[in-house]
Amino acid sequence: MKGKTIIKRYPALLIQGGRTQKVEDWVAVEGSYELYLNDTLVDTIVVSPTDLEAHALGYLVTEGFLKPEEVTGVEQQGDQIFVRTATKKIIPRKAAHQNVIYRRREWGEIPVVSSTLEVSPALIIQCAQQIPEHSESWKKTGGIHCSVLFDQEGRVIKAAEDIGRWNTVDKIVGYALLHRIPLTKKILGCSGRQPEGMVLKAARAQIPIVVTKAAVIDRGIEVAERLGVTLIGFAREDRFTIYAHPERVRVAFSPHLR
Amino acid sequence: MKGKTIIKRYPALLIQGGRTQKVEDWVAVEGSYELYLNDTLVDTIVVSPTDLEAHALGYLVTEGFLKPEEVTGVEQQGDQIFVRTATKKIIPRKAAHQNVIYRRREWGEIPVVSSTLEVSPALIIQCAQQIPEHSESWKKTGGIHCSVLFDQEGRVIKAAEDIGRWNTVDKIVGYALLHRIPLTKKILGCSGRQPEGMVLKAARAQIPIVVTKAAVIDRGIEVAERLGVTLIGFAREDRFTIYAHPERVRVAFSPHLR
Hints:
2 copies of one chain form a homodimer. The relative contact order of chain A is 0.16. Chain A has helices at about 50-60, 120-130, 135-140, 165-180, 195-205, 220-225, and strands at about 5-15, 20-30, 30-35, 40-45, 70-75, 80-85, 145-150, 155-160, 185-190, 210, 230-235, 240-245. Chain A has an 8-stranded mixed sheet with strand order 2-1-12-11-10-9-7-8, with helices on both faces. In chain A, strands 4-3-6-5 form a 4-stranded mixed sheet, with helices on one face. Chain A is of the alpha+beta class. The interface between A and B is large, with 74 and 74 residues.
């Protein structure tokens, strides 16, 4: 498991200028590893699978849990990384915080998204074009993510801005819950990447179509496949790429990816 | 504290085409709030200060802690957000995980970065230009962050790629520790934004200059100011902006920002 593969190819549909093309698209790989300090589990880290010993050591030091001089060894064994100190210091599990992105959790119990929503390619492009236009703050700072909830005509229901892309989805879903807006025929537009944790949020909220202007990550595709989310990436200008469940987009092409 | 300000202006130096200009730059604001479920603290969330009740509710639901129908109320009081359910359900503190970015921690004890490093504007531009060139994976997927450690001549010591921008810094610092490379005269180049948590990582590692091609976030500037980190953002083509400790960059201009 000491893999160095941080990208891999996925089958996808590229829709550009009204034409549909089957492609093999490069996607970033999400790995998860258990981080142990003196044989006590500190955290499950989600990380691209390179430089794992360096990551474990750097994480514990730059988050202030260890001083460099305390460390006596770092070693990877399969999906586990062990950091050792002379003093047998421990950090109780989950006392450590996770800056990174997503800790793996069980998601087998999440119901598959059930929706009859079907949209045209033009509608996806229309939604994508409205994502940055709703963020004056983004234009000013370059440091703000935005998610937008669209109805099935591509009209904006709610736009949420945040420094964290995860937060923008929380704000959208929370807004819908507060206003009793059902989500099973809505489209979620995002400015940010879609790893497993982001797509899980949409799945838990029963949102059938997720469109991002940015990239998708490999486990995001896997979750979307399994939980029935139509996952669309790189939605920019007149193009977008469908990575999972293309059957909700009416394209002039056999919609089966696999 | 129910503010709606998610961006604010900071004084900065813009260096472009060899000229230096004092500017007031818009920067995204980082807020932190305590999230309570039935009066038990779940987590400290870091978020742009809008839609906070929606965020709290969306976060608890999309992470799978609550079902929408369990919620009986959501309310913000100052820096605290309270979510209530009929069943008095609780989630023990830190059992919740944090997708977002950074939980505030005490950092008063971190020593100010002490370094005699001084560089030219041309060196900063040279470093910035080398950040994406070291990530073939980024070019292929658009979903990979990259950090690069440079020596004081702008030569690459180590490049680290990851789906998480935090991880790239951990990998760089861990690599330096594993190879006993002192960091007090090095430059850290990043592809990603610099909020408080990212700058804290550099400060803990005693890295004097941080350069990102992306934006800086307000508390990132505050940490850099307090802990002696030269913080440079939007380093692209022939330009960059210095947000804190410009005295390490030799520009033909009074280097005092404030």
